[in-house]
Amino acid sequence: MKSLRYIIIFIFAFQSNAQISDFDTINFQEADRIALECKNETLDNLPQLSYKLTSKLTTDVERFRAIYMWVCGNIANDYRLFSKNMRKRQHFKNDSLKLKQWNNQIRKVIFKKLLNENKTLCTGYAYLIKELSNLANIECEIVHGFGRTSTVNIENFTTPNHSWNAVKLDGKWYLCDPTWASGKPNPATFRFEFDYNDGFFLTNPKLFAINHYPVDKKWLLLESNNPSFKTFIEAPIIYGKAYAKLSNHNAPKKMHNNIKKNEKVVFKFQLLKPVEKEDIYLLIDNGNRSKKIYPKSTTIENQSLIVEYEFEKSGFYDVHFLIGAELISTYTFKVKS
Cα-Cα-Cα-Cα dihedral of 114, 68, 203, 103, to 10°? Predict the structure, then answer.
């Protein structure tokens, strides 16, 4: 019995760390090339598309990579439709019958746009990834839940607003978000710009959970110490570029923080790859002006990045953490005397 218990603990620990680093020995160059080569393919025949993307590759992770890259490079996010959907869902949040009717209606529109215009919402991205993967005999699921971005009003988090995928590779489940990986819609013009972000491919579940909270908690893939929905809502803002730089965000745990003057604030991250100390800085805004601060205490060791800072004056501050030109995270600090 003791041996069995150790085996179960090992399996849980192993699963909780399922992320891209598991495939460090895999070169995705061929999979990416095939995805690019198939750029002009249509969605008229999904079995044929799946075959063209995967038949020349030897591992499931490479086959999935080709599918994922094709979807991220050829399907645009329809921000105008997204905005309309969010408005309608918010309007009908207290009327379950009308909300159900709207969901049925928008689902038809989502798939019509996907097939006819190569435009869709997150549900369409997740559906296409699942279908193409299943056709290649890769187990893949759609995960529905809540997605936090800098433009989302978390006070309206009453119904799920996002979908992504879980995929089973070599017996383990992994997470990815093809919608956020594909690019950025412009909220002002509604135009979509393809700008692939590899950080959302087989992401560390611990980092993924800061921006994604599934309706079914099993898809957190953390096995133990699952964050509560309250923890998710209170978390700091983590930007898309952070996923390309980090494998995890450890501290501060909350977006809004109350501290005392001269109290040490610790920012702690786990890096995907090395960075230079001189590229790390804070942009601190006190409501009147923004100031660029290079922290006196910055430690980088074994891919762990730790930055310490002390506020010398009381007040209310917006603090943005940057690595080079990339905005990583945002917090607020109410500093008392």
Answer: 20
